Amino acid sequence: MPSTTSDRLSTTCDPQGLTPMRTARLRRYLMCRPTYFDVVYSINPWMDPRKPVDTSLAVAQWERLREVYLELGHTVELIDPVAGLPDMVFAANGATVVDGRALVARFRDAERVDEAPAYRNWLHTHGFSDPRTAELVNEGEGDYLLVGKWLLAGTGFRSDPRSHGEAQEFFGRPVISLTLVDPNYYHLDTALTVLDEDTIAYYPPAFSPGSLAVLERLFPDAVIATDDDAAVFGLNATSDGRNVVLPHNATGLAEQLRGRGFNPIGVDLSELLKAGGSVKCCTLELRSGDQENQNS
Q: Where are the transmembrane segments (predicted)?
């Protein structure tokens, strides 16, 4: 059964009360084993078909990520991979699921368009009775991140800015548009991560001046990632409100998170980074209708 926000895992607080209390809550995730993972085309700056890919290593690294989620008590469901869709492992791109409603992605690139029907079919048969395929290009949780009552929505390289209005009408939640300007950070989830309902971490150079001003206004206490941590996709992370799973070599970001009372857990997904993806890319959160504050 889907978890609710009352399913608390653990709470942490500095003995002197100097760091905030952090509460972890159970999550329900969807993942896709990288059985057919490869880099055979290039649709972002990270992808180079000339570089060899070790699919068995990618599977082993992905399995470790899945184990971490299970060890933390989260539910992990699996969608079957489809031959000929090497990027299907990046489940976050398949849809956005909020309040029990699923908006299925409409991919920009021809190489990925067949992923959308596979995710729609899975959602339809696993408790989401009426998943809707987006009319405008959006790439799921790659560009839509739920924080508190808002959806932060990225554009600039993949998702059509008009899709933000479509998402707002569908979910009935305020959508905050953010423009990405660095092609290395082509999805919002490569440049920003949600830590809890009030806290985010992000990489300022990835955003336009106006979008950066919005982030500074909305999240004055945000964690700011360094160039080095952003470059290893340290912000492509997941959080249950206390435990933050992130690339193991984002060491500076991990130290910042620890200082804020979070528990960073590093994993190695270096093989999947060859296609421009890491922890969050592999993880689609399934939020049921009774999960009002999934990011707390």
A: none
Q: Where are the beta strands (DSSP E) in the chain?
A: 8-12, 22-25, 28-31, 75-78, 95-98, 101-104, 132-133, 144-147, 150-155, 175-179, 192-194, 200-202, 223-224, 238-239, 243-247, 263-267, 284-285
pLDDT digits over 94-147, tens only?
999 999 999 999 999 999 999 999 999 999 999 998 999 999 999 999 999 999
Residue 65 vs residues 32, 99, 240: alpha-carbon distances, Å: 12, 25, 14
Q: Is 92 left (phi over 0), alpha (psi -120 to 50) or beta?
A: alpha
Was domain 25-190+269-285 assigned CATH 3.75.10.10? yes
CB of 273 closer than 8 Å to CB of 46 = yes
Partner residues linked to 152 by β-bridges: 145, 176
Greatest CA separation for the chain: 55
Do residues 143 and 153 touch, judged by C-beta distance below 8 A?
yes
Tens of pLDDT, residue by residue over 24-56, are 999 999 999 999 999 999 999 999 999 999 999
